[in-house]
Amino acid sequence: MLKAAINAELLKDSIAALAVIIDEVRFKISREGIFVKAVDPANVAMGIFELRAEAFEEYNADECEIGIDLNKISDLLGITEKNDTVRIELDENSQKLLIDVGGLSYTLSLLDPSTIRAEPRVPQLELPVKVVLNGLDLRRAVKASEKISDHMLMGVSEDTFYMEAKGDTDQVRLEMGRDQLIDLKSGDACSLFSLDYLSDIVKPVNKANEVTLSLGRDFPILIDFEIANGAGKVSYLLAPRIESD
Amino acid sequence: MLKAAINAELLKDSIAALAVIIDEVRFKISREGIFVKAVDPANVAMGIFELRAEAFEEYNADECEIGIDLNKISDLLGITEKNDTVRIELDENSQKLLIDVGGLSYTLSLLDPSTIRAEPRVPQLELPVKVVLNGLDLRRAVKASEKISDHMLMGVSEDTFYMEAKGDTDQVRLEMGRDQLIDLKSGDACSLFSLDYLSDIVKPVNKANEVTLSLGRDFPILIDFEIANGAGKVSYLLAPRIESD
Amino acid sequence: MLKAAINAELLKDSIAALAVIIDEVRFKISREGIFVKAVDPANVAMGIFELRAEAFEEYNADECEIGIDLNKISDLLGITEKNDTVRIELDENSQKLLIDVGGLSYTLSLLDPSTIRAEPRVPQLELPVKVVLNGLDLRRAVKASEKISDHMLMGVSEDTFYMEAKGDTDQVRLEMGRDQLIDLKSGDACSLFSLDYLSDIVKPVNKANEVTLSLGRDFPILIDFEIANGAGKVSYLLAPRIESD
User: Fold this and answer.
1) A94 part of contact set with chain B, CB < 8 Å
2) ipTM higher than 0.95?
3) Fewer beta carbons within 10 angstroms: which end of chain B, N or C?
4) Which residue ranges make up each domain of chain B?
5) What is the CATH number of domain C2-115?
6) Is-above-0.90 flag for pTM?
7) Residue B105 and residue C140: Cβ atoms within 8 Å?
8) How does pLDDT run across B70-118, given as a tens digit for each residue?
């Protein structure tokens, strides 16, 4: 069972953060909120998503699992206004989601969750380094790096966090000292990541005042930030690229 | 004879409302104003347009008929500013239209009206139902329906006007009660229309505070709204689609 | 040697004005500023560009010549904010340009100037007519003409400057009298120019309050305007087209 109401803008941002990873996902619904874990088709990035009950204007739910095509919801949310309220109701018998926005009622057929790839196991990683920075700084470094290369190095050297991309002839590097960061737990960290993935991930990150990066040496990166004014959270786990040459 | 001056924005909106139906049209010019009736190439939609003398800053005309390629005028109006005044003068000898905007003088060759499809006969229809609503509401329903289907049902059931689109698996429906409408004359009405046409028609409708829909059962729809602050009027008559399924 | 700092918006506008002509250019650097002369690949348009030391927030330079791919710099400047300061330093040993914007450091490989087409000789022309007008007026005439033709006539007839384009059936003409111009030195001038080139040139001109055109009969046109609040100057010399038919 699910019957809920939520601000349209907030739902749009949440769906956008998930759509970065994959289109068809299983929503785990419970009394506490909505939870998703999903892996991208190439097994490079994982998204862990939660939107807790308090993010909603109204929220009533029993435990259940539904399959959703995020593209369809994004399409529908495209015509909402910033301050619209979206009402959602699950019809379990017909496996349909009823969505109501300002008098417009959508009936959306759900996907059979069993046809969607199972929820991944989240690996237990010891990531020794933590960097907390503004989402805009991360985005700026990613956008600058895209002009030059298709992968980017992220690491920490003593009290400095750096992001660096090298092209055939050119290079770009952003260094941020402890005083430019919101927080830093220093240690041994330096890994290479695909800019294809980072530039997608960075889109929703953009709105986050605070993004936490957890890093190691040639290890995956964990990118965490809050959504819905703290009533939700998105984490991306991105596998490193192994430097050739 | 025609010699007139008109606000650029107003002329742009008028031309845009006409261009929805067809590119080459016959303008019937008289002392009272400019009048156009045109049918789209597939004979599905008809546009009936009038821009009366009082819409103009200056207006002097004798009865005449000219052929115009609306694309050319739209192109030229594209570079005008909102508050520009457009001066128009017809040179009947050379069959050219002289258009002056802020010092820029265009000389536009007219089309021979006899090469343009004749003005259609407007059918006399008894459309029992009338719905008056805000142009934005109509537009929102059309935009939502486009995501799901290529045709849309419009009808009235007792005191409720509804618009509905059904896709293979999903559905969208907008219901508006008497209190959400500007006016309603209820009756038997339910017809299916092509969203291709509706989404074009809805573009100029968007700016109208008040749109009147006249409907019947499996009958054409008549969509009326004012332009030029009441000094002009556009009507679209759109043929219904016959539901196959 | 070069070590300089400049406002990002100002540098972006300067690069954009140059990029109209060609992508790879030789920058002549001296104590007085940065100077470029370049010809487009088809030898139709020449750009003469200067950005004097006073345009910079800081400027230290010895005489040198470097080769730059303007596309790369435009790309990088694309992510700067309006009020950012761009710091530039030339590393002559490695032939690299170090560019720093808000903590982001770019290392840009320079081109070997000897691989770039040599600086053209600027022809000495006697252009009897001078027209000074607002950049926006020039742009408006060019944009209107593009709708109709691929070349435009520019000339002076007594106290009137005119720009005119003729299509197969239509025509557009902008006339500006002495009172609508900022200044006019009248004389014999009437030449035809390619709108392909003019519409590129007119993009940076757009921001100029004052543009000086120097003209003759079937002669090139010289289009001059200031950049960087008077601390720089761009001149375009555009060859005329010979009217056929």
Assistant:
1) no
2) no
3) C
4) 2-114, 129-238
5) 3.70.10.10
6) no
7) no
8) 999 999 999 898 899 999 999 989 999 999 998 899 999 999 999 999 8
